[in-house]
Amino acid sequence: MSFDHAASFDLTYGTAFHGLVPRGQVGVGDSVLVLGAAGGCGSAAVQIGRALGAHVIAVAGGPEKVALASELGADAVVDHTQLDGDRALSQRVLELTEGRGVDAVFDPVGGADVRDLLRCLAWNGRYLVVGFADGAIPTVPLNLTILKSISLVGVAYGASAIVDPAANDAAFAQLFDWYRAGLVPPHVGHRFPLAEGAAAIATLRDRGALGKVVVDIAG
Question: DSSP letters along 66-132, please?
Answer without folding.
Answer: HHHHHHTT-SEEEEGGG--STTHHHHHHHHHTTT--EEEEEES---S--HHHHHTEEEEEEEEE---
